Amino acid sequence: MHVKKFEADSVEEALKDIKRTLGPEAIILKTVTNKGLKGTFKRKKIEITAAISEQKYIDKASVDHVLDSKQKDLFYNDRASSISDSINRYASTSKTNGYGGLSLNKRVNTVKTSEQVPAANVSANNELDDFLNSDDNFSSEEFVSEQEIQREATRPAFQEQLAVQDVNRLSARIKMLEDSLANQISSRTSSRESELRDLRNLLASFGIAESSIKKLIKKVTFEFSPEDMEDESKIFDFVLREMSSSIKTEMPLFSRVDSSAGPVVTVLVSDCASGQTSMAMKLASMNDKTVVIQSGTILNGVSDVAVKVVQDIFAIEVVKTNGISEIIHECRKAVDAGKSVVIDYRNSVAEEESTRKFSETLIRAFSNVEVLLTLSSVHSENYNMRMLEKYRVISDGIVITNLDNCLDYGALFNLAIKAQGIPYKFYGTGRNIPDDVESATPERLIAGIFKL
Questions:
Q1: Considering Cα of 278, then 264, then 267, then 250, what sign does the dihedral take?
Q2: Considering the entire predicted model, what is its pTM?
Q3: Which listed residue, of 163, 194, 320, 331, carries a Cα 20 to 30 Å from 413's Cα?
Q4: 36 — alpha (psi -120 to 50), left (phi > 0) or beta?
Q5: How far is CA 185 from the centre of its chain?
Q6: Is the pLDDT of residue 407 over 70?
Q7: How far apart are CA 104 and CA 125, in angstroms?
Q8: What is the rounded CA–CA span in Å between residue 398 and residue 395?
Q9: What average pLDDT does the segment 400-419 reach?
Q10: Which residues contact 193 (CB under 8 A, 6 or more apart)?
Q11: Res 43: pLDDT
């Protein structure tokens, strides 16, 4: 089969070119119209791919070989049926003429009389003139319009003239390629879906919220090709980086402000037992110029003897108060003396409405104030979520205690995502004062989630 692509500015022009190059029995395989942005990069507006069987192309070439340019113009402007009949008739004649047809293998010019050419070529030229000028073949006066040529070329009968075996062979090959491509796509899709399903199940088993899993799956799908999806280590590393970047952490204010900025007031806020008192003692033990101010109900469940022992060992100044006004007063005394303050503030239901006003008063009264919500990792995820919503407005950061007893690091990851910009400041990792406290890092939680 002989296949060729033709480019032209119009369909009529392309069909003329096809008719002249491949003959009237060519079949149209594909037509492309270059429009819009695609068309701006193409030289021609119309692209037509046509084909003809090898035998038909050879028969046409045998006629083209004996025609000059002017004769071709006349010949291929005739009706398609007439051109086809003439080519078939001439091809059958040239095959049965034996050696007498050999003279037609050379290009000759037709003449009106035999006197103008050597005697040896008279019979050949007369035969060619009879062939070209016979009424059965074509007449130069019987031209048709371009629209009629287009209609003739697009008729179903025109496309059915290609040999049946060639069509079947082409169709079979196309079907084979389509099946092969479909199998490859199906195989890659199944593998991709399997990898994503395994990733989803893994994250869910560690307690990661469904909303976070969907975001991670979407990023993996966008970033990885089907080939890359086969490398589990790459996917795992990518997920670790994405999860780590989702956890916001910052250094606490008292570790970032230099001495020239003045004392820092750090307020620890919680509702119930969360290891807040021990955390206040740990923070105070880091700096010998720090005062711990406790509210009157702060020692609920905490031994006064234990606090006294810690206070004596680390020489920590602890001041107990019975209300917000006393807290402000003691805080003012400490700041004026050049000492930083850690306020161990335990909120109660009765004082819930005054907590916001208390924090606003501190911010107005002192330069460096930071309010930190204290949450325990042994509390349920739902409880910590409720505390976050309750104190979100006044919180500058979050403190996580009892990390050494945490059984669900996925809940802490979900809490970090839910915090929406409120960073983790530091972690409490045990009961020892002052050792079991460390700066908050995303890697600490990620390692806990995946048991790294």
A1: negative
A2: 0.56
A3: 194
A4: left
A5: 18
A6: yes
A7: 9
A8: 7
A9: 92
A10: none
A11: 66
What strands, in cross-sheet order, belong to the sheet with 27-33? 2-8, 46-52, 27-33
| Cβ atoms of residues 426 and 440 within 8 Å | yes
Q: How many whole angstroms separate alpha carbon 110 and alpha carbon 67?
A: 9
Residue 50: beta bridge partners? 4, 28
pLDDT tens for 325-359 read: 888 999 999 999 989 999 988 776 555 667 788 88
pLDDT band, residue 399 (cuts 50/70/90): very high
Nearest-angstrom CA–CA distance, 59 and 91: 6
Q: Residues with Cβ < 8 Å from 59, sequence gap 6 or more?
A: 87, 88, 90, 91
Question: Which pLDDT score, from 0 to 100, does residue 209 have?
Answer: 93
* 24 neighbors 18 (Cβ within 8 angstroms): no
Q: Which residue shows structure tokens 């033990």?
A: 285
Query: Within its chain, how far is the Cα of 50 from the centroid?
Result: 38
What are the pLDDT digits (tens) for 435-451? 888 899 999 999 999 88
Q: Which two tokens stand for residue 156?
A: 């179903």
Q: Which residues contact 307 (CB under 8 A, 6 or more apart)?
A: 277, 281, 299, 318
Judge contact between 437 and 426, C-beta under 8 A. yes
Q: Which residues of 362-389 are buried (b: 16+ CB within 10 A; e: fewer)?
A: bbeebebbbbbbbbbbbbebeebbebbe
pLDDT of residue 305: 54
All domains in the chain, ordered by first residue: 2-162 (no CATH), 170-246 (no CATH), 253-449 (3.40.50.300)
